C-alpha cells in the first residue's frame, strides 16, 4: 500500500509541474500567491481545537487558498496551496515517510486550489467547487492517516474508520465551515476588484 501511495503521489506532483509550465507567473502573480498563502498560514496558527496526533480546527485557514483559486485560476490556486502546505512545516512537522510528507504537507493543501473548478458565476457552482476541493483535501488526509498513522487507532478499530473519523472531525468540519462562509461572501464583488494576473 505504501508503494502505491508513493507512486500516485509522485505522479500527481509530476502532472502538476507539467501543467504549471503553461502558467506565466509574473511578479504580481507571485506576490498575490505568496500573500494569500501567508494569510492561510497565519489563520492556521489560530487553532480552536488541536488534536494530539496533529490537525484540528483552525480559523478558516482553507479560505484564502480557495479564494485564490476562484479569483485567479486553478494553477495559481494549486501553487498557493502548495506554498501554504510547506509553510505549515514551520509550525512543526511529523514526517515518517516521503509519501506521507507529500500527502500531508503538499497534496492535501494543493487540493484546496481546485475550489474554482466549476467557476463562480453561480453560487451553486461556487459551492460545488469548494465542496470538491475540501472533499479531496480531506480524502488525502484520510489516506495518509490510514496508511502511515494506523498505529494510533484504538485496539480492534479499523485503521480506515479511525482515520476517517479523525480527519472528518478536524479538517472536514473546518472545510464545511469554510464552504458555508464562502457561500455568503460577495465573490462577484471580489472578482471585480481582483484584476486578472
From TrEMBL:
MF annotations from Gene Ontology: thiamine transmembrane transporter activity
Keywords, alphabetical: Membrane, Transmembrane, Transmembrane helix
Transmembrane helix among keywords: yes
Protein name, per record: Energy-coupled thiamine transporter ThiT
Membrane recorded as keyword: yes
InterPro entries registered for this protein in UniProt: Thia_Transptr_ThiT
Database matches in NCBIfam families: ECF_ThiT_YuaJ
Pfam families: Thia_YuaJ
Lineage of the organism: Bacteria, Bacillati, Bacillota, Clostridia, Eubacteriales
Transmembrane segments: 27-46, 58-87, 99-118, 130-153, 159-185
